[in-house]
Amino acid sequence: MKIRNKNGSLVVSNDVIASICGYAATHCFGVKGIVARGVSDGIMQFLGVKNMSRGVKIRYDEGGISIELHVACEHGINMATIGSSIMNEVKFVIEHDTGVKVKNVDVCIDYVDASEEA
């Protein structure tokens, strides 16, 4: 993606923007991590910092970017609240850090971790 301002232009890769999205999402309350599904087998895996872009999809168009995040969350927390929190945080961080307009953020909760329950 090419970002232009009064001083010139800057090219930012999709992986950088996806990593910023993943970082912002994982710092929201109730989020366990970013996940990716294996296309062929449907197996889900938690992604580390280096692979976070696999759980984030970014689409560009004239009005800005659209972001799709795949996350895992904790059991017992309101999913609508988590989703809203992630949407707001990711939009704010991307617009603040890169200056790119974010049209929408879609959050897919692919996994709910109930391992801590008795």
Describe the fold and architecture.
With 118 residues, this protein is of the alpha+beta class. Strands 3, 4, 5, 6 and 7 form a five-stranded mixed beta sheet that branches. It is built from two helices and seven strands; from the N terminus they run ββαββββαβ. The model has no long low-confidence stretch (mean pLDDT 82). The chain has helices at residues 14-26, 79-98; strands at 2-5, 8-11, 31-37, 44-46, 56-61, 64-74, 102-113. α2 (79-98) links the parallel β6 and β7. The protein is 28% helix and 40% strand.
Q: What's the β-strand tally?
A: 7
Helix content: 25-40%
Question: End-to-end distance, in Å?
Answer: 47 Å
Helix count equals 2
Helix and strand arrangement:
Elements: E1 2-5, E2 8-11, H1 14-26, E3 31-37, E4 44-46, E5 56-61, E6 64-74, H2 79-98, E7 102-113
Parallel strand pairs: 6-7
Antiparallel strand pairs: 1-2, 3-4, 3-6, 5-6
Helix pairs in contact: 1-2
Task: Tell me briefly what this model is.
The chain is built from two helices and seven strands, in the order ββαββββαβ.
Descriptors:
28% helix, 2 helices, single chain, five-stranded mixed beta sheet, two-stranded antiparallel ribbon, alpha+beta, 118 residues
